[in-house]
Each structure stands twice: as structure tokens, then as C-alpha cells.
Amino acid sequence: MKAFLAEYTVCNEPQLAAEGAAMLSVLQQSFEASGYAVVSPEGSDFAAEIRRRAPECDLGLVIAPDHLLFRFTHLLEQFTHNIGCGSMNAAVCANKRRTTDILMRNGIAVPEEVTAGRKIIKPITGCGAMGVRLSADEPGEGEFGQRYIEGEHYSVSLVGSRVTGNVCENYTGRPPLLLTVNRQEIVVGEDGALMYLGGETPVHPPREREIVEVATNAMNVLGCQGYAGIDVVVADSIYVVDVNPRPTTSLVGIAAVMEEEIAGILVAASHGGGPEAVHLTGHVRFDKDGSVQPV
Q: How many Å separate Cα 285 from the centre of its chain?
């Protein structure tokens, strides 16, 4: 069996390449341990490499910045079995303003859009914390502002079963599988830029059940499949601040404490199956470049 693992930043985005390489390494090790030969792009022409290598593989997964994920996932879906989020749902999640509006209309707490005062300014089609800043300035072209929520930052790592896309015939109605709740280390620089430094996992905050419920609802509303990371801020409510329909940096920490292979979970979920729960041992800190240390 062959698995096509295509991580965009390793060859195309130096600023994010270390994070991308760390996620790719964890996934490659897991698929190889699960009996797969792993195939990956060998050059910077990402689309050409998908067309060349994906057809020879039994399944595939694209990891790319959110604004590129639809394009490359849609391409992958034409050549092999996609075990990640469906391309159409990835397209919705790439537009942070549209995502916020959809979640709000479905009763999920999100920071409301604002134009005046001190606020979070983010790209409409961004990736993680890149380009996100705390400022009283007016948003620039292609940006929008949201109310700044003071609180604790967490992410929830989930794996969704089939809902839509090229394998929707595998829909079973199973709810998303919780992997972990992760504490995020996010700091604000002197220039107001938000910087993601890493985090720790697993954590069990006082409102854990509520955090997981909100994250799961957000994932279901947006129709995400495969691995997804839901970022929240815990304050007076549980606010969803970002939805990442792809593997995130937290995976490097999760793999260090989870008994199950992430490869097996992703493949099973793509057919509507998988475990009811995962088994975790230990507690680790991880940085954005993939270093993992026991706590």
C-alpha cells in the first residue's frame, strides 16, 4: 500500500517550513509503522507533483496553508482517496470572515467584527497566526477586525468521519473523535503581532467538556473531515477564533502521548470508522518547530 503525503511549506514557504517538516515527519513515521510506503512531492511545483505521484497511491493527504488547501485538495481528489478534509469545506474554512459568520449564525460564540478601537486584525484568507496583530489601526485591504478577547488559549484536535466529498458514500454519522485538548502558547510582540510558540498536551482545563462541545459543534457546522484543529479562547464564553481543516502543529505533541497511530485513525475515519476514543499516556510540551519535551 502507498500513501501520498503532500506538505506544501517544506519546499515552498520557508517561514513555515520547520512546522511543516515536523508534521510531515510524524505522519510519515505513523504511516510507515502502519505498513504503508510513503510517497511525497520531490519538487516545488506542488500541483505537478500531485498529478505525477498521487495516481500511484492508495490514499493521500494534503497539508497546506488554508488559502491554498482547497486548490490542492481538489486536485488530489481527482487522483486518489482523500483522507483529509473535503475540498469544498476547506474552501469555506479558508475565508475567516465567512467562517465567523457561519458559526455565529449557528449559535457558536465568535469574536464579533469591529472597525474601531483596539482589536485583532487578521487576513480574510490567512494561515494560523501569520499576519494577525493586535492594533487600533484600520484593517488593510484583504483584512478585517474582530473584538479582542482576553482569555486562555486552547486548541481542540479532532478527527471527523465522512460527511461530504469524494467518499461521502462512506458516511456513517459517527461524531468527530476527540484526540486532545491542547494549551496554546501565544504571545503579543512589541509591534502587536501575535506569535504562536507551541503548546502542551494533553490538558484538562476546568471547562474541558464545554470546550470540546463547542469545538465539535464548529467542526460539524463547517462539515470538516479528517484531522482538524479548532482554536478557542476561554473567557466569559468559549469563543471559536479559528478553524484549521488540516493537521496542525499540535500533532507532534499528540503523537508522543497517543497509543494509537494517527495513520490508522485517519484512514479509518475516511471510511466512516475508527475508535470510539484514544488512549493517552504522559504530558508533553512542544514548540512550533517540532521539538517535544516531557513535562
A: 18
Query: Is the model's pLDDT at 282 over the cut of 70?
Result: yes
pLDDT given for residue 190 in this prediction? 93
**Distance between CA atoms of 31 and 267, rounded to whole angstroms?**
10
Strand order of the β-sheet with 59-63 is 37-39, 2-7, 59-63, 81-82
231: left (phi over 0), alpha (psi -120 to 50) or beta: beta
**Cβ count within 10 A of residue 135:** 15
* Sheet order of strands, 284-287 included: 238-244, 226-234, 152-160, 177-188, 194-201, 284-287, 292-294
CB contact at 8 A, 59 and 81: yes
Q: Which residues contact 213 (CB under 8 A, 6 or more apart)?
A: none
Instruction: Supply the CATH number for residue 7's domain.
Output: 3.30.470.20
Structural domain count, the chain: 1
The mean of the pLDDT values for the chain is 94
Range of the structural domain that residue 247 is part of: 2-294
Positive or negative torsion for Cα 66, 41, 88, 271: negative
pLDDT at res. 163: 53
Nearest-5° angle of CA 77, CA 23, CA 157? 80
The total of other beta-carbon atoms located within 10 Å of residue 52's CB is: 15
Summarised one tens digit per residue, pLDDT across range 180-199 is 999 999 999 999 999 999 99
Dihedral pair phi/psi, residue 267, rounded to 5°: -65, -45
Residue 51 CA from chain centroid, whole number: 24
pLDDT per residue as tens digits for the range 136-182: 999 999 999 999 999 999 999 999 986 544 445 566 678 899 999 99
